[in-house]
Amino acid sequence: MKIGQLAKLSNLSIHTLRYYEKIGLIEKVYRNQSKQREYDDDILIWLEFINRLRETNMPLKGQIEYAKLRAKGNTTIGQRCEILEDHLQKLIIAQQKLNSNIKAMEAKIQIYHQLEIGNETKHT
Q1: pLDDT (tens digit, 9 = 90+) per residue, 52-68?
Q2: What is the sign, positive or negative, of the torsion defined by CA atoms of 66, 70, 74, 75?
Q3: Are residue 2 and residue 50 in the same domain, yes or no?
Q4: Other C-beta atoms within 10 Å of 113: how many?
Q5: Residues 37-54 pLDDT 10s
Q6: Based on the domain organization, do 64 and 87 belong to the same domain?
Q7: Which CATH number does the domain housing residue 5 bear?
């Protein structure tokens, strides 16, 4: 598929796709006789995974490192797994902190609701 079609299917801009190729998130892609990029359908799965890494706040440096290891093939599976395990642990810690903050917010909101109810009964 051409870059325009890939942009539509991936919800990424053409500029972003070119940038990803430039920095190594996407491997250099085959170009036809007209020098146009021609992507394999599997690129969509890879772009979806890159998006997950980005959405979970993996630093760009880590994404690029992972992509470069992926490009080297199965000999890097162990290294890639370590990167993902490390990232997963960071996500779990972040999720625990977020859950704690959510509980604190809910408790504070509950206190305010109780105070509002108390004020309403005093003024009626």
Answers
A1: 999 999 999 999 999 99
A2: negative
A3: yes
A4: 10
A5: 999 999 999 999 999 999
A6: no
A7: 1.10.1660.10
